[in-house]
Amino acid sequence: MSTVAEQSPTRRGNKENKAPISDRTRAERRLGWMLAGPAFLVMLLVTMYPIVQALWDSMFNYRLTAPGDRSFVFLQNYMTVLSDGVFWSALAVTLLITVVTVAIELVLGFALALVMNSVIKTFRGVVRTAILVPYGIITVVSAFAWFYAFDINTGYVNNWFGWLPGIGSDFNWFGQQWSALFVIMASEIWKTTPFISLLLLAGLAQVPGELNEAAKVDGAGWWQRMYKVTLPSMKAAIMVAVVFRALDAFRIFDNVFIMTNGQYGTETLSLLAYRTSITRLEIGLGSAVSVILFLCVLLIAFTAIKVFKVDLAGGKG
Amino acid sequence: MTAKPHRRALRAVAVAAVGAFVMAGCASDDGGPAQLTWYINPDAGGQAELAQQCSEASGGEYNIQTSLLPRDAASQREQLARRLAAGDSTMDIMSLDPPFIPELAEPGFLAMPPSDLVDETTGDTLEGAAAGAQWNDEYVTIPFWANTQLLFYRKSVAEAAGLDMSQPVTWQEIMDAAESQDKYLGVQGIQGESMTVWVNGLVESAGGSIIEGDAASVDTLEVNLDSDAGRKAAEIVGGIGEKGLGGPGISSQDENAAMGQFQGDKGSFMVNWPFIYSATAASVEEGSVDQSVLDDIGWTTWPRVDEDTESAPPLGGINLGVGADSEHQEEAWDAIKCIVSPENQAQYMVTNGNPASSAAAYEDADVQEAFPMYGTIRDSLDISAPRPQTPYYSEVSSGIQQNWTPIYEVNEDTPAASDEFIMSVLKGESLL
Fold first, then answer.
1. Which of A207, A287, B57, B149 could hold A57 in an S-S bridge, CB 3.0 to 4.6 Å?
2. Under a CB-based contact definition with an 8 Å cutoff, are residues B109 and B323 in contact?
3. Architecture of domain B30-140+316-380
């Protein structure tokens, strides 16, 4: 900690007494721009163009198979979307999935990170590989695997867990909202917990060993060291993990698409945008849903960075 | 300064590659065969085989290459609509599912078939298949193969229930029979296209129609489920749901799942496409289904809603269309004429299990041997009714799917609620 405190004034001091830029530095900077500039420009084009196009399209009543009927409606599409229960229901489902999965993944991911961090060197590689396997599986493939495991016709889960109350060979997991959402979230948690654990493992590695040792010498127990030393030192890594996963979970699509296709109250915002733009070919209305989804993601990122002061570049909270 | 030898070699290779590319692109313009692309739905390889046969038979006029579309009909429609809207000039021949034809024909995405070709290819087309290939009473596509649902039944169950299956049966009768024998009915209760197929079949069989008025425009179109026919349909669907006759997996049951249930101990009666017979026969060969199950399967036309009114079974299939922006329309129509010949339809039916739209194909000895129920299929195709023909079919269908599932929640208010919801979606006032 003291190292950080000492460094800050030095950095500020450097800024204040800026030395004139040498020709060599200027030339290097120019070269840097020339090398990175085209890629930066292309990146800007491929990200900005679709966003601007979606914004523009969202202000039209435009159906792909009725190009002649295209008309400017300004914000009408947004009003239709925001005044519809379907949108709010999809938003609620999306938020529920985001909150539940991120919370559970954080706890499980932390436990796995602790295991990976403390396991003896001989088994470290094997344990890390085993934990990371689900993350290496393509989401669509894992969604199908979970679907077939729980499906009433092909699944084995009913057979295995028939001893639990309410579960029997006749139980249709995808026949109602709560059980379908349970499977979707379980699949999501299984798939992405390794990602969180990987980020947390990096944070865990940064916790100074001497602090833990000092606390131990002072008589702190395991829980006290965890709460007073480890967790506060890892705040930055935890916040980065939460933000990345929350942004990812909010855009959930594959699992829902494969398992229920949004039926029985399991539709999420991404699926609603997809169905409106791609299935219904309602480019205007679908673009409005997409823009709202984009704004929601932006809001999450903004809140995390400004309110919780997460430094995504430096990993400092 | 002279270029280094390896640079000269590189340049020569680049020039040769560009030259070859340009030459290849111009091949058809230089008198070679026109390169046609046929966008096909997945099958057992029959369309690719027909493409090769017709290319060879054309005497160098055209060469057909196939391009595979996604597995389900809705995704096929999405890809075709997007390509056509973008003016893709490779849309020479397209395998089109009948319900999506009006949506592509109305904005002029499809080229109109020449009248002499229509006369030559549709002379003996079965009535239901002919209706599915038209929009505004005009052929906009050429019928290729046609599908229809039959009522399959377990002979042992029908006999135990005392049902005479040589006579037409009603939905009420098979519901009572399944209930009395403690068996499940094979229906499709999943929130998917099969739900619309079922509801439309019931409404048409009851003498109604889901869409009324000029179906081309949202302003003139009327959804008419809140009618006597619609309410009868709701009574049947809701009745099956309420009594649990569809089985525990009804909410996610599609055609394949219904077939699996039908082959089991609880199977009794099932409405489904004819593919289930060849699929069951294949399972018997594999050893996963007992021969006695296959021997116990009988078939007849779709059940009636009213005892005295002939049923209107669901219609499916594939028709062939040509993109309005295709650069080889003339050759494409010639190719279609070859593909849909009765001989080719018969061959396709035998090898791929998809029923022909031409009545003549059913006279083929191989067809009669492979499909013992060929007569029932042909009769069913003659009385079958297409799904609502409107450019807004996708919305109508999704609206029905959302309101009529899960089927145990369907009641007398469902038809009116569906009408209101679908109209509000069509007017852009609600999301789907």
1. A287
2. yes
3. 3-Layer(aba) Sandwich (3.40)
pLDDT attached to residue B85? 94
Q: Are B259 and B281 in contact (CB under 8 A)?
A: no
Contact B268, B184 (CB under 8 A): yes
Contact yes or no for A279 and B430 at CB 8 A: no
Alpha-carbon distance of B135 to B321, in angstroms, equals 12
Residue B104's pLDDT is what? 95
User: Exposure pattern of B311-323 as b/e (b: 16+ CB <10 Å)?
Assistant: bbbbbbbbbbbbb
Chain B contact for A140, CB < 8 A? no
Count of all residues that appear for chain A in the document: 317
Smallest CA–CA separation between A248 and chain B, in Å?
A: 25
- pLDDT score, position A135: 92
Over residues B99-140, the pLDDT tens digits come to: 999 999 999 999 999 999 999 999 999 988 899 999 999 999
- Is A22 in CB contact (< 8 Å) with chain B? no
- Angle at which helices B255-263 and B275-286 pack, to 10 degrees? 50
**Which portions of chain A are predicted below pLDDT 70?**
1-19, 311-317
Q: Which chain B residues have a beta carbon less than 8 Å from that of A171?
A: 248
Q: Is A64 helix (H, G, I), strand (E, B) or coil?
A: coil
Alpha-helix residue ranges (DSSP H) falling in B248-341: 255-263, 275-286, 291-295, 329-339
User: Element (H or E) spanning A298, and its range?
Assistant: helix A283-302
Domains of chain A by residue range: 85-307
Domain boundaries, chain B: 30-140+316-380, 149-314+387-426
Cβ–Cβ below 8 Å for B252 and A280: no
A154: closest chain B residue by CA: B257
ipTM of the complex, rounded to two decimals: 0.78
Task: Give the gyration radius of chain B's Cα atoms.
Answer: 24
pLDDT tens-digit readout, B367-401: 998 889 999 999 999 899 999 999 999 999 999 99
pLDDT at B11: 63
Question: Domain A85-307 adopts which CATH fold?
Answer: MetI-like fold (1.10.3720)
- Interface contact B257-A153, CB threshold 8 A: yes
Q: Does A151 touch chain B if contact means CB atoms closer than 8 Å?
A: yes
Query: Which DSSP letter does residue B98 get?
Result: G
Domains B30-140+316-380 and B149-314+387-426 share a fold: yes
Give me the pLDDT at residue B228, please: 96
User: Residue A9 and residue A15: Cα distance in Å, rounded?
Assistant: 10
Q: How confident is the model at residue B92 (pLDDT cuts 50, 70, 90)?
A: very high
Q: Is the Cβ pair A67, B85 closer than 8 Å?
A: yes
Confidence of residue B353 (pLDDT cuts 50, 70, 90): confident
Min Cα distance B398 → chain A (Å) is 9
3-state secondary structure of B302: coil
Contacts of B107 in chain A (CB under 8 A): 65-68
Query: For the residues of A103-132, what is the DSSP string, one character each?
Result: HHHHHHHHHHHHHHHHS-HHHHHHHHHHHH
Question: Which H or E run contains B297?
Answer: strand B297-300
Closest chain A residue to the Cα of B259, Cα to Cα: A153
pLDDT band of B329, cuts 50, 70, 90: very high
